[in-house]
Amino acid sequence: MKPRSAVALGVAMVALQLAGCAGLLRVLPAQPAIALAFVASVLAPGYAFVAMGAAPPGGLALAPAWAMGFGIAWNAALVIATRACGVPFTVLATWSVVPGALLWSVAMWRAGRTSSHSGAPARRTLRGVAWAAVALAAALAVVHVARLGTPITYYGDSPDHIGTIRRMLEGGDAFPRDAFFRDAGGAGVDPRKGLWHPQVALIAALARRDPVETWRWLSLAIAPLFVLNAAAFGWLAAGPAGAAATAWAELVVRAGQIGWQPLRKAVFSTFLADQLCLAAMIALIADLDARRRASRLAAIALALAAVTTHVFSAIQLALVAGALLLGIALRDRGWSEAARRGAGTAAAMGLACLPYLAWRALHAYAPANVIHTEPQGLLLVTDRIRMVSVGVLWDWNAMLWALFPLGWWALWRHGRSNAAVLYLLTTSLAVVLVMFDPPVVALLSPRIGYLLMRFVWILPTGPLLGLAAATLPMRFFDAGRPRLRAALAMAVVLALAWPAAHDAALVFARPARFEADETRVSPLPWRDDLMWMDTHLPAGSVVLSDPATSYAVPMFTRHFVVTLVDQHSSPNDSLALTRLLDARDALDPFASWARTRDVVRRYGVDAIALNRRFTEIPRLDYWAPTPGWFDEARVRLDRHPAAFERVRDTGDFVVYRVHRAALDTLDGPPPQRPNVAEFLPGLFPVGRRLGAGLPVIHRLALWPRVVAPGDTLHGVADWRALEPLPAGSYEVAVRFDRTLPGGLAPPAIVAKPVRKLVEIARRERYRFRADHLPTGGAYGVDLWRANEVVRDSFTLEVPRDVADGSYAVGIKMIRQPHYPNYHLSDYFLDRDYYSGVTMGSILVARRP
Fold this sequence. Notes:
Structural class: alpha+beta
Distance between the termini: 74 Å
Oligomer: single chain
Radius of gyration: 29 Å
Strand content: 5-15%
Shape: globular
């Protein structure tokens, strides 16, 4: 960077930091205030390192992505320094401008010194049409996130992160042990959270915005940097055309994955760390040719940024860097100069990260949360041979995953001389080795649990799609090459990319549709009630509520809760499942007062919140609040106002203050459950077994028996547990099957793929299924007794694309983790994981 440019940028950045420290950003609307706070807090120090010569491939046009990484690493060091000095990290909201100004002083001095006697070679920079294309893709990323913001639902991770950030701001501790549970202790430490969360907290403090608002709009500033980061990789792989194509491919892939919205989740440490790992590998690859101290230091700093953002990055970088070095050695048939340089840089990256990793290890990462550690998301080839379920490839990459095996040969034959192209090959092979090699899965599964599925995120899908988009047209128009092969390759790439491109177009064209879908499962509509709790309940109160509402309480308030949703408590929390079941039992309208008292005293409950503001019954794993449960729970508490003082009542959201002395006086037998009957052999059909460790089913009633697509079908299943069953996540699957048209009966070994092909060809379905929690989880299966029959009521909607005909009705209860484990045969046999016992039939007939 030229001295004048460095001085101008440095003055502007320091001035912005001063403005943030002075609170001047509060006068701006939320989106620009939070974006400028990000610039002041993260990009301002990061650009100082860029000014000192650490620019990415493609030059300063793509520098914001690396500046973000350098700034994150710088801030991580400052947070660690405050901890070493024993002061709250929140002092950095005011005082970080001092080290920032010193850093820029060094940068300006270095820029002038380098300019006067620079020996660095001149480098090409991105400009012209290619830069315009990249800039447009980055701008569209901003537009995409600005219209919807970061998703905040009680199914996702946002409430977890926001609650942690709020607790950090309140206590000034970058690693709070009590983010959610007042009694958590060491079990409350979440080893997955690194030094990015306190940086978000500092951004909130600079912008003078609530953590909820900051989290929602911070992705706006980060998302375009993902696009620029991908463009830097494309520049290495295929020059200016590669940069432009890869920027657009990254936009399409990350904006178009409707199911998990990675671009809108740019603020999440997992997605951010993935980008920082890619930036670190870009720096390592660039260093193979540059061989400059600045290029090696850039790789080290970006690796530090990734690891301090999320500790999983240490595994990710070790895997992809090791695979790339092995690929270089195989390509060069020995320990070449490139392999030696790469190994030296990779070793320096690892050594730089080692102190932080060792310190984090002292936080005792020992997975003890059974919800996390139970084997899940696996494919059982046999009972002993397991690998990660291949379904995750479709879940998180749609059909784009197929680009990798289809491209392996071409990547090696035509691109191995380019280290960036070789990276695409070696990284994908390394991911396959980890996810689909049974011995590796057997080694890692007990230690990292369902995080094994996370390895699929490492696949550089956008960069590979960008490389294909940049190179295949050139091969097609090259008169010296056969065109048919290039044309076929382009057709395959377009076909595989179409679902993601269609998703992206849908998101850009109809954002209101997705906003409405998210609002239905968002805690934001309860904000007023939760804010009331924050101001009117004593500080640090423990609130007892259903899992979804409990999940939102620390997000909006300074209070604690008894439980969280399903998989969102720390892997260290050995009481996670116990907390869920304790909260369920304490609020059970038909529980004994002794059980409620036990839970209230164990967790120090100060208040109870009952919430009926759900627009749909939450799809949770263990129990979920239903309208009937709300009404019955409210009646139970309202009968004893001395023990449960109603302090807020909006009709569908009620808050009670708990008076423990009065609660101690409550006694008497619990009321009879309306959905439970005494088991008398002569009154019920003979029970049909579903498998070991599961209840038997006595009867299934469905009405009406004749339905049209779109109709609501009602059902009641009568269950009985022959013996006490273990606590866990139980699910009832009700499935409807009819024969294929024309009497088609394929061999059993290919029955499922044939059926799916017929369904696609005829655009109608011959099987549908609806799942639900037994009794909505209100009366847990682990509480069922052998002398009672439990009546499980449910409703389902008949899909609108099912074919007319007679459907056999099968039912099964499954005890399964959050991500089911399937057998290999489940992908081929029609009688699969969800096949139960046949209990009747219905007729689907369209109305004239």
